[in-house]
Amino acid sequence: MERLINRDGNWTLAKYSYRDFEEKWAEAWRSGNAGGVESHPDGESRYVLDMFPYPSGETHMGHVRNYTIGDTLARYHRARGRQVLHPIGYDAFGLPAENAAMRSGISPADWTRANIERFNATYTRLGYSYDWDRVIVTADPSYYRWTQWIFLRMFERDVAYKKEARVNWCPVDKTVLANEQVVDGVCWRCGAVPEQRQLNQWFVKTTSYAQELLEGLDDLDAWPEALKAQQRNWIGRSEGLSLELALDAGPVESVSVYSTRPDTLHGATFVALAVEHPAAENLAAHAGRLEEYRALRKSSAAMSDIERTNATRVPSGLQLDVYATNPATGERLPVFVADYVIAAYGTGSVIGVPAHDERDFKFARLFGLAIRRVVAPVAGDADLPFEAPGIAIGSGDLDGMSTAEAKRVVTARAQVEGWGRGTVEFRLRDWLLSRQRYWGCPIPIVTCTKCGLVPVPDEQLPVLLPPRPDYDITGDAMSPLANLPEWVNVDCPSCGGPAERETDTMDTFIDSSWYFLRFPSATELSGPVDSDATNRWMPVDLYTGGIEHAVGHLIYSRFMTRFLRDVGLLDFDEPFVKVLNQGTITLDGRAMSKSSGHNVDPTKILEVYGADAIRVFILFIGPPDQDYDWPADQVAAVVGAHRFLDRLWQLGMAIREGVRAESASEVTLSRKFDKILAEVIRDYEALKFNTVVSSLMSLLKELRRWYADHGVTAALIDGYSRLLAALAPIAPFITHELAERLNLPPDTLDHIADVHTTEHQPENLTIVVQVDGRLADLLDVPWGTSEAEIREQALASEKTIRSLRGRTVDDIVWVPGRLVNLVTAAVP
């Protein structure tokens, strides 16, 4: 069937060459903005969005998978008659552009602009049907003007604030990192081990929304469970008991501790303070161990919080010359400074229960402290430390209680007796916003010697990032902008006196925390959003991107949506109805790296096989949330998808050149199509694109078989047209070209109609044949066989002929789908 018969009866090979038409369609869609949509649409709508890219040097295959998924779904929804918002933008600020600019001697703005043009060309070439009138670039002043406006609203409400804090400092990128940007103990961007520094920094009070962010996860039914689990763990809600422990000596009367396991207080054998605890240095001086304390603090500063709290690490500490009283037992407990205790969590101090906490256990072993078991497993025995819930032992009147019951009893007793109170704590920390880099959104605050921190008035926004000079501006200052005095020194907006601009820039995650809200009104001039348009389109129906953004971008986005809701701009809580975490594409089992050349270059495959082949292949490799290891022969991997498209093309050319024929059983083909296309629609809705492709391959196989047996029939043309429409969201170039060459109606590819299958009906029907009301025969015919065909078969039946006994049929009574009654002429 590779060679097809033309109208002259000659065998010919219909060649498929994407070069003949893909560029034509790409330019037509781009110039006509085929993906454009109204800001205030009527009727059913969908907002389909992919996490926008950072415009680095090249598009990689991970981009292609992500954006092909989104574009396919956007095209599908349009074909289902829905209004679809499917935009694209660029997360354009950030370190790679700044570092590349320093290496190459060009400005970050020029470097970023050139990359965006390259990305746009590739996305156009791949046929992505974006609304090109809504492109957002976060480094454009028309966008970051509103990022600054949002910051000022946070500042007004004390949600944005500045304070001295111990922060993660990347020695390579020379900037601070938020806790979310320290991954496995290293910088998420460059892999360097962060240092700890005490700096005056800007923060955003994400903790004020911690409980709401946690509770909101319960309503996100279409989010992956693994993603929600990561957010729950990162928010880290815990209920415990806050205690005030009296000290027996020294310059400090008491310290506060927080315990998540008040049921274990009878097992406490020490108290530990964080090295940054406000009382630690004074207590160390009182004990005559100030130098040892400073050495411990210095070694702690070299570690991130994650490293310090790692349960597999052997902790370090220093005993102080004071004791605290355990209010639950009256016992005196030695007080230490310990590097595994984190100042920012709880009260910055803990009451150590080594039998039931691994870090306490290691610390107690290090200093030879008592280890007292006060919780036993419900059944059997367990080694120490035993951290699971169980049954209280060695705890006085708590003995025999479950962990949950004992916690309730101790908390209630502490509150009644006045030595403790029930407290809720969160692992989530406030968002560290300051960055000591040039290429970021300027913070719209000035510092006045008289007025202090003063916001830049709204009418003076945006505070423009100055052009980066040709010379190096890193200097000795923490922030490069501090070395541009002509930009830094300004008049105070409040009193007119001398003031200085804030020289840190904002973390780029603030740019991406609200960009999806801007797309419905991307050119709005009066505010960050047109509330009517945004509330009409939002929340996003499908948001596609990697799970690595679970505790960074996706938490920040949920926070920002709630904040802008409270400002009065939005009427919804959650930004994304459904999140799809697409699988990772690796090469030979290893993560791809553009810098090392270990990468699949989409442009090479585009050159050999074209855009449709890449799109078909990338969706056919498996469910979109599963990883895929690209084979070593990168280009040849796509040959199967190309072969499918080639066969589709050949059949289309055969239909164009063929002579119409008639078939007596066309309903059989139509019925098979109905059944498979119904499955295709269900799989599109369920994002099972690999099975959509598989089903469409099956349909093509049926059509090719039909053509070989029957030639070009009405059923073949109808089936082929429906196949093109169903395939168009995945392979738009070839389907549009074939529809044009076959002179199909202009809207053929614009609609994928509902298919009403009849699965309850058998493949064949039994038709009763009667002669003058008496049973003559039973006919087994395919469902949908026409009345004329059934009449013909009834008259030709041997049993019917015998029953007629030579009489003439005067009339035929037809009961659709059930019965044929042959009425004979009356005998004179």
From TrEMBL:
Main location: cytoplasm
Binding annotation for ATP: K594
Renumbered ranges of motif 'KMSKS' region: 591-595
UniProt subcellular location: Cytoplasm
Catalysed conversion reaction: tRNA(Leu) + L-leucine + ATP = L-leucyl-tRNA(Leu) + AMP + diphosphate
Keywords attached to this entry: Aminoacyl-tRNA synthetase, ATP-binding, Cytoplasm, Ligase, Nucleotide-binding, Protein biosynthesis
Mitochondrion among keywords: no
Domain Aminoacyl-tRNA synthetase class Ia span(s) in chain numbering: 429-623
EC number: 6.1.1.4
GO terms under biological process: leucyl-tRNA aminoacylation
GO cellular component: cytosol
One GO MF term attached to the UniProt entry: aminoacyl-tRNA deacylase activity
Top-level taxon in the UniProt lineage: Bacteria
Motif ('HIGH' region): 53-63
Domain (Leucyl-tRNA synthetase editing): residue spans on this chain: 232-413
Top-level enzyme category: ligase
Methionyl/Leucyl tRNA synthetase domain sequence ranges: 52-192
All copies of domain Methionyl/Valyl/Leucyl/Isoleucyl-tRNA synthetase anticodon-binding, residue ranges: 670-745
UniProt family annotation: Belongs to the class-I aminoacyl-tRNA synthetase family.
Descriptive protein name: Leucine--tRNA ligase
